[in-house]
Amino acid sequence: MPQIVDELNRRQLRVGRPDSFDLERPDSELRRLTDIGSLLQLSKGFYALVPEDRRDKNTPWRPTIEGAALGMAAALYGPESVALIGPSATRAHRCYPRALGEAYVTTPKPLRQRATIVGKIRFVTRDITKMDTVRIETDLGPGWATSVEQTALDLCRDRPAWNITGEARTEMIRRLADRIDWDLIDEIAETTRGVKTLRRLRAILDRPQP
Fold first, then answer.
1. d(Cα 93, Cα 210) in Å, to the nearest integer?
2. Per-residue pLDDT tens for 51-67?
3. Contact (Cβ atoms closer than 8 angstroms) between residue 62 and residue 118
4. For the chain, what is the radius of gyration of the CA atoms?
5. 65-204 domain in CATH 2.40.128?
6. Residue 87 contacts residue 155 (beta carbons within 8 Å)
């Protein structure tokens, strides 16, 4: 098995960059593995491991945009420092059935948005230790996403500017609401200075204010 394939197999999220491999000429090997369908170039400098049963020179396999976003962020900063948020976390929780053309993922340092073969990825600078997060699974491996409660609060905020319609945002919030732990969300709102946001969430859901 090629060294790069072996290394990506052992990673939590199976996305790598040339400088993350201890090889003399990683770019050449990455191109070769991409040409034979073992890897898929997501964006310039980012490569995902294709599932073994889908490897082929002309493989049609593509990861979800959520998996790509989390994998690319993890390739830069490590899987324990990044998390899906907002609409992407809603998708990770299976609370929105339709695919999105953009993904949102946190990183500890600012990054420009990036185009990929599966859509646009927006990187939002946030400290993962100051969010309520849970483990989720993607098609490129496990990682973190904001909890249902944190995600609902985030969607009620004006920033970051989610590039979705108002109708889609409301639908996401209502689907998330079926799974909200209201004692936990009160605690999260207090901790994250989100009490006003929680009031807005309750208003959207026609839920009595405490």
1. 27
2. 999 999 999 999 999 99
3. yes
4. 18
5. no
6. yes
CA count, 13 A, side-chain hemisphere, 107: 21
Helices marked H in 78-165 — which ranges?
Answer: 86-92, 148-156
Do 29 and 9 meet the contact criterion of CB atoms below 8 Å apart? no
Residue position matching structure tokens 């920033």: 159
pLDDT value of residue 25: 87
**Average pLDDT of the residues in 15-41:** 94
Tell me if residue 174 falls in helix, strand or coil.
helix
Kindly give the interhelix angle for 148-156 and 166-177, rounded to the nearest 10 degrees: 150
Phi and psi at 9, nearest 5°, equal -60, -30
Domain ranges within the chain, ordered by starting residue: 3-54, 65-204
pTM of the full structure: 0.96
Residue 91 has which token pair? 């998708």
Burial of residue 122, with CB atoms counted within 10 A of its CB: 0-12 exposed, 13-18 middle, 19 or more buried: buried
Contact by Cβ (8 Å): 93, 138: no
Give the bridge partners for 105, in sequence order: 84, 123
